[in-house]
């Protein structure tokens, strides 16, 4: 449907839905009301009956996506503040991130070909374990579709935050470092929020590892392109 | 609006403009020098250099950086709406995609947590 009389309709709906969902989520603490789930559901519920395409929606809201750039710059603050933690524990964190990245890319690629998924979809699945502002440029480098990757990143976060809690009960993890890394590498943003509920140190480690995973994968992407 | 609140908002705006500026400089640098890096990452590097050299304190940008990171969800929700164009793909391949994401995420979490735990225990045994 043509919404030209209201050029900022989608931007207003996205912002309004976000603020409402954030308020509801903070009040109730119910995961189903998290903006990560509720806002896309709300937008789809309006856009599908109106036959709105992604191009039309994005022409309104690309301004919001532009803010992922300065948000990436802002990641320098937690890296710098946690440099002491990093100096003490970099071998464990680096090895954990290397193991996580290798398993993420290797198992996605192998499973996707075993299930004979389309090449573009498989390539969009590879950077799924890193946070969105990094995952989208990596997907572009690898020949995937950045927007599709954003969807896969979101699903990974939702699933990882749910399953990570169960894994913590079964795995004999003594160090808060391992518990934090599990969430930061496995479920990025959603995982960091979950790790903060487990403990302060876990949350800090998860947040740091999430950013470093993004950087590590971004710098490894050109190498990966040669292998694929 | 009282004065303290106004000053808080003013400060927040300044910090956000500074972060946007760093992003813009990062984009320009990457284009000029033909670096295959997103502008945000170059900006992140510049900001780390500024912290390390003592030109800037992290506290100076704490408000703006905190806001951008806390509301990051809002900035990538628009990309999720690409689902509007992939309805057919999800109907045909959706369950296979979910299977890949689910099993791979489980393996990633196991591999990461067990590696970090192993290194921590090894270090605890080998260090005084």
TrEMBL record, chain A:
Record membrane topology: Multi-pass membrane protein
Chief site of localization: membrane
Bilayer-spanning residue ranges: 6-25, 32-50, 62-80, 92-112, 148-168, 205-225
Location of the protein in the cell: Membrane
Entry-linked Pfam families: LrgB
Secretion signal span: none
Cellular-component GO terms for this entry: membrane
Protein's UniProt keywords contain tRNA processing: no
Domain of life from the UniProt record: Bacteria
Keywords for this protein: Membrane, Transmembrane, Transmembrane helix
Name of this protein: LrgB family protein
Automatic annotation (TrEMBL), chain B:
Organism for this UniProt entry: Pseudomonas mangiferae
GO cellular component: plasma membrane
Mode of membrane association: Multi-pass membrane protein
Keywords carried by this UniProt record: Cell membrane, Membrane, Transmembrane, Transmembrane helix
Transmembrane segments: 12-31, 37-56, 63-83, 95-116
Main localization category: membrane
Pfam families xref list: LrgA
Designated name of the protein: CidA/LrgA family protein
Localization: Cell membrane
């Amino acid at each position: 449907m043509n919404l030209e009389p209201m050029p900022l309709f989608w931007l207003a709906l996205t912002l309004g839905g976000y603020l409402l969902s954030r308020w509801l989520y903070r009040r109730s603490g119910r995961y189903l009301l998290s903006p990560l789930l509720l806002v896309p559901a709300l937008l789809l519920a309006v856009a599908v009956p109106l036959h709105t395409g992604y191009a039309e929606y994005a022409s309104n809201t690309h301004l919001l996506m532009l803010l992922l750039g300065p948000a990436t710059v802002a990641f320098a603050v937690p890296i710098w503040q946690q440099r002491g933690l990093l100096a003490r524990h970099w071998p464990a964190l680096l090895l954990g991130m290397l193991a996580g990245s290798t398993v993420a890319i290797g198992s996605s690629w192998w499973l996707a070909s075993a299930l004979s998924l389309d090449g573009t979809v498989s390539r969009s699945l590879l950077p799924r374990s890193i946070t969105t502002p990094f995952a989208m440029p990596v997907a572009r480098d690898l020949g995937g579709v950045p927007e599709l990757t954003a969807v896969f990143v979101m699903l990974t976060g939702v699933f990882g935050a749910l399953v990570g809690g169960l894994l913590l009960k079964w795995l004999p993890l003594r160090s808060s470092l391992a518990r934090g890394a599990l969430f930061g590498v496995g479920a990025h943003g959603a995982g960091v929020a979950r790790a903060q509920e487990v403990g302060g140190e876990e949350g800090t480690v998860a947040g740091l590892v999430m950013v470093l995973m993004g950087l590590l994968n971004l710098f490894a992407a050109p190498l990966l392109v040669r292998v694929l | 609006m009282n004065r303290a609140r106004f000053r808080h908002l003013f400060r927040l705006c300044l910090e956000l403009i500074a972060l946007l500026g760093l992003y813009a400089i990062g984009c320009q640098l990457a284009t000029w020098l033909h670096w295959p890096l997103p502008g945000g990452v170059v900006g992140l590097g510049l900001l780390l250099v500024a912290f390390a050299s003592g030109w800037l304190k992290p506290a100076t940008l704490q408000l703006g950086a905190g806001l951008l990171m806390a509301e990051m969800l809002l900035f990538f929700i628009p990309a999720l709406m690409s689902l509007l164009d992939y309805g057919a793909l999800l109907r045909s391949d959706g369950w296979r995609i979910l299977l890949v994401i689910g099993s791979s995420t489980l393996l990633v979490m196991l591999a990461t947590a067990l590696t970090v735990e192993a290194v921590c225990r090894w270090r605890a045994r080998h260090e005084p």
